């Protein structure tokens, strides 16, 4: 049956930034598809709640509370998967972010921090995961990077974040070329999704209306929209895709995204 292609029976996944929002929804979706999941983020209480929800599906969760701005901590998640579950098949590099700042307030250090948090952490985990994914009875697997619409559209205040997410999107293409054919690497360019990171928008009717009206589907997305896409890319359903950045953004095509930040 075609739906069997979306299943991940006996697989093991690592999801970063898994305490809430897109990461939590993705970890739960992978578990519902049949995977055991290593969860990592800073806040152990949040991870524990996600782990309980995963246990309720009949799958296993292993919690690693860590500051993933530390690339050694990010890299260590691959070994944590092997220790906990004996294999590694799927990596979801979801940790990232950056607070919007005008260009004139964006220091070189801040730009480098954004790159580190959104790209270097993903590379640290990916580089450590690859040899483990290629070992064992079923060598191979899938890596899913969570990029952003801001990596391809222009908007005031997003210089650091957008630059980093654009880099992550191209990192995805380059890594896919290096790791084919055994390991597939794809990314999701996330649009406006209702997570805590978007509280400023969700709590401001004017800004929310502006964002919704600039989106062809006239709606803010849900974390489950991204989670479903991650399952597709991680499973055999997406088995003929690699090096692709899927735009899950409500159909946004505008070259510029104006959110009302003031002129210089």
From TrEMBL:
GO terms for molecular function: oxidoreductase activity. It holds the Pfam family adh_short_C2. It comes from the Bacteria. Keywords: Oxidoreductase. The keyword Transmembrane helix does not apply. Transmembrane segments: none annotated. The keyword Oxidoreductase applies. InterPro entries: KR_dom, NAD(P)-bd_dom_sf, Sc_DH/Rdtase_CS, SDR_fam. This is 7-alpha-hydroxysteroid dehydrogenase. Belongs to the short-chain dehydrogenases/reductases (SDR) family. Residues 11-186 form the Ketoreductase domain.
